[in-house]
Fold this protein.
Amino acid sequence: MRAFVAVEATSDAIGKLQQEMMAAWSPKEVKPVAPGNFHFTLIFLDEISEKQAQQVQEALLGMSFEPFSLTYTGVGAFPRPSNARVVWVGIDEEGKKKLEVLAGQVISRMQAIGFVPDKPFSPHLTIFRSKNRHVRVGVEKYAGRTFGTDIINRVYLKKSELAPSGPTYSNVYTVNAAKEAKE
């Protein structure tokens, strides 16, 4: 199975942002990420066997973390705003630090069982992918704007099934935070 470890994002404000931004492009240029697919990939595992999936679950089992909140803020693009293939939403500095610590804990546990990250962890929430061309993103228009908050209180081992219409993600295993989040 094609798999990764992630936390989910659920802000309704991001869906509204997608609608606002979509007005600047044609559906032939970009494809919005479905709101049910919003997530932060902590580590991509690629194709893994059932045995490896069990090892991942066992490695995640002993993990402990406190719930934390993050605020979605600003918009960016890879490789750059003037020639974007991916459009993303960032997060506030405090949430970014906490998500980086959580990712570090997950990555360390995955390295202990033989998985190596394909790239350094960079906290961003992908909201669009360019189809066959690069698009221009006016990120300055969104500088300093916020798009809701989330409580991060679960880590998931996710399975990804690719299809022409886009990926379908399903949760294989869930790790809950040490205690309930306090708002």
Notes: Helices lie at 12-22, 50-61, 93-112.
